[in-house]
Design a protein that fits this description.
Layout: H1 2-49, E1 98-100, E2 106-115, E3 121-128, E4 137-142, E5 146-147, E6 157-159, H2 163-167, E7 180-181
Parallel strand pairs: 1-6, 4-7
Antiparallel strand pairs: 1-2, 2-3, 3-4, 5-6
């Protein structure tokens, strides 16, 4: 009787162990199956996102006749400002230049210039006379009476007038008519001859 009970107990133990082994094996199988499913699903997603190599490209539809093409956006244009390089030894500024007579006597200094509406330089305003700023008068001197030295540095202007002519000249005052010293009046225009009369028509025969 005891041997039978022991045999039955061993049988139940073997069956229980077999069930546990089967459960573990099934769990491993389920894990492998789930991993394979995930790999296959990922491959399907990658294939779905990759366009086929031989897919035909659709050409853009032609615009209907009579429709205006869209204007192209304006492109930025880089414009260059023209410039000229002037030799400093060939040109000089005027303001502040001393004015001397033909004999080299100091007469004053250029403090301003006068131009007409067309931009032509008409006269130079010269601070004439005085001593240490006392008794100085501004005089408008015709630009044609001034010239730079023929040679050497261009650091002064020479006026073709005498000191007495400048001393007796009326002073320049801003806002008043400008009396230009040394400026000759323009010669009167020659009268235009009237047009010749048209020849009389020839008499008919």
């Amino acid at each position: 009787m005891g041997a039978v009970a022991s045999k039955r107990a061993n049988t139940f133990a073997n069956i229980f162990a077999a069930n546990i082994f089967a459960a573990k094996t099934f769990a491993i199988f389920l894990r492998g199956l789930l991993a394979c499913s995930l790999i296959v699903a990922g491959a399907h997603v990658a294939l779905a996102q990759t366009p086929p190599a031989d897919a035909p490209k659709t050409a853009p539809e032609p615009a209907p006749q009579g429709a205006e093409a869209p204007a192209a956006p304006p492109q930025g244009r880089v414009t260059e400002t023209p410039a000229v390089v002037i030799d400093g030894n060939a040109a000089q500024t005027l303001l502040g230049k001393p004015v001397q007579s033909l004999k080299g006597a100091d007469l004053g200094r250029v403090v301003d210039v006068v131009v007409d509406r067309s931009g032509v330089l008409r006269a130079a305003i010269v601070d004439f006379g005085g001593f240490l700023g006392v008794g100085v008068r501004k005089i408008a001197v015709d630009w044609r009476m001034l010239h730079l030295p023929a040679d050497g540095p261009m650091n002064k202007l020479i006026v073709d007038l005498q000191r007495d002519q400048l001393r007796n000249a009326p002073a320049y005052k801003d806002g008043e008519p400008i009396v230009v010293i040394g400026g000759a009046a323009a010669p009167p225009a020659e009268p235009v001859p009237p047009p010749a009369p048209a020849p009389a028509p020839a008499p008919k025969p």
